[in-house]
Design a protein that fits this description.
Arc Repressor Mutant, subunit A, two-stranded antiparallel ribbon, 6 helices, 2 domains
């Protein structure tokens, strides 16, 4: 409730909290806010649906981190960063000393882990999450 009070003090009129629970009994809370207009029931249901999808993704292990606390392995990060820099899978393979099909497999793994529809979306998400550097892209 302190978070809700702080948000209201910042001038946000509507604050809503969705309590969520996964099948293992873990509890989550999704918090949303809106400054001007009230949130309609349709919007609230849509947001709630997105929250439930996120919890389902957690249960599937879609956001499970590698041992070092990162989402992508070092090799996956290298391959995705090279793709973001515009390099072909063949050029990336040559630079990393692996086959082009292995580069392709790493990029597909990145797309799956980042829940991206394509390579560009995977690169953008990886940059936002700090998995690959934005420099040089």
């Amino acid at each position: 409730m302190r978070a809700a009070s702080a948000v209201r003090a910042a001038g946000v009129q509507r604050v809503f909290i969705f309590p969520l629970r996964d099948s293992a009994g873990n509890h989550y809370a999704a918090v949303g806010a809106r400054k001007a207009l009230p949130v309609t029931m349709v919007e609230a249901r849509l947001i709630h649906s997105y929250c439930l999808d996120a919890v389902a993704s957690l249960e599937r292990g879609a956001f499970a981190a590698c041992r070092d606390g990162r989402l992508l392995t070092a090799r996956e990060s290298d391959c995705l960063a090279a793709a973001g820099a515009g390099k072909s899978e063949k050029d990336t393979a040559r630079e990393l000393g692996i086959s082009p099909s292995t580069v392709h497999a790493h990029i597909e793994s990145c797309k799956r882990k980042l829940q991206a529809k394509n390579k560009v979306e995977a690169v953008v998400r990886a940059i936002r999450l700090g998995e690959i550097p934005a420099g040089g892209i």
